[in-house]
Amino acid sequence: MISAFKHNKITIEVCEDSLTSCIFDTFFLLPSTFLWEILRNAIIATPENTQKSIPKEKIGQLTHYEFWPHWAPSGTENVNYVEPDVFIRFSECDVIIEAKRYEIGQQNPLQWKKEIIGYRNEYGKDNKQSYLIALGGLLNSGIKKIEGVSIFQCRWSSIQDIICKILEHEQNSVVCLILKLVLRYFEIHGYVQIKWLEELSAGDKMCKNYRKSNSQSISFLLCHNDFKNYLPFQKFSTLTPVLRNYNQSISILKTTWEEWK
Questions:
Q1: pTM (global) more than 0.90
Q2: Which residues have CB under 8 Å from 134's CB, separation 6+?
Q3: In CA terms, which of 50, 87, 96, 191 is 20 to 30 Å from 216?
Q4: 124 and 162 in contact (C-beta within 8 Å)?
Q5: How far is residue 98's CA from residue 107's CA, in Å, rounded to a whole number?
Q6: What span, in angstroms and rounded, lies between the C-alpha atoms of 30 and 10?
Q7: Beta carbons within 8 Å of 42's beta carbon, 6+ residues apart
Q8: Phi, psi (rounded to 5 degrees) for 51
Q9: Containing H/E element for 174?
Q10: Residue 15 and residue 2: Cα distance in Å, rounded?
Q11: 1 to each of 29, 86, 192, how far by Cα in Å?
Q12: Pairing mode of beta strands 129-135, 86-90
């Protein structure tokens, strides 16, 4: 499907549901432990996450997954059903995922609680370890648990970053093909891969090109103190940029600009 979309043979409505299904449908091609490690490391790398260490436990095998399941709403304000975005069952634990399209500000703790109650209505008798991952739409809520279930927050871009790091050293060609496909789906949904300034070495071709073509632009940005508004990925209207190292980048620019003048 992705090739047909790339070559304008088909169109898809780029939205929260398409992002969720494209990424996780492809993820489920990976071995269970590989999938879990990507999620774990992405959670740990997410600054807004209130719990910095999701347990590194034996999750067992992937036994079941479901998109947008309908769970009994008993004990909630919902009338018909409760619907998380993805439900993943491993033999040793269950994972509820509530996904949002953008990175900041769309999650709702009341929705988390409803989904946990709905999960208990369906699977409470199994008495399994369970987690809820709030993916995208992050909040500074400080909430660590609801109804005894641990809450973890995760950025979509953190998943993307972890995949890029894995591809730097992964030797399994099949795993690499799957992960590259995930990255292509991220690109379709406006998530570009960015190499941060502090990651550039003096001999890096990208660094040399940057110096050659952008010295005047750097001067303009520094003079007008408007670096944020000129980041290249601002042109993606569907992407809320993660300016995670703004201060550090400005410091690097100021230092190197003195050397380049």
A1: no
A2: 98, 100, 107, 112, 151, 152, 153, 154
A3: 191
A4: no
A5: 8
A6: 26
A7: 154, 155, 158, 159, 161, 162
A8: -120, 115
A9: helix 173-188
A10: 15
A11: 16, 21, 20
A12: unpaired
Contact 128, 97 (CB under 8 A): no
Q: At what angle do helices 156-167 and 32-44 cross, to 10 degrees?
A: 120
Cα(155)–Cα(153) distance, integer angstroms: 7
Alpha carbons 244 and 259: distance in angstroms, whole number: 25
Cα–Cα distance for residue pair 81/1, rounded to 1 Å: 31
Distance CA 179, CA 147 (A): 34
- How many Cα atoms are found within 13 Å in the side-chain-facing hemisphere of 254? 11
Distances from the Cα of 117 to the Cα of 60, 67, 106, 133, angstroms: 24, 18, 20, 15
Q: Which amino acid is at 95?
A: V
Kindly give the confidence (pLDDT) of every residue in the chain, 261 residues in length, as a single tens digit, with 9 standing for 90 and above. 666 666 666 677 778 888 999 999 999 999 988 899 999 999 888 877 666 667 676 788 999 999 999 999 999 999 999 999 999 999 999 999 999 988 888 899 999 999 999 999 999 999 899 999 999 988 887 888 899 899 999 999 899 999 999 998 988 999 999 999 999 888 888 877 655 444 545 455 444 444 444 444 455 445 555 444 444 434 333 333 334 444 455 555 555 555 544
Nearest to 136 by CA among 160, 107, 161: 107
Phi-psi region of 58 (alpha: psi -120 to 50; beta: other; left: phi over 0): beta
Q: How many CA atoms lie within 13 A of 119 on its CB side?
A: 31
Can you list the alpha helix ranges (DSSP code H) found in 90-167? 109-123, 156-167
Alpha carbon distance 219, 207 (integer Å) = 17
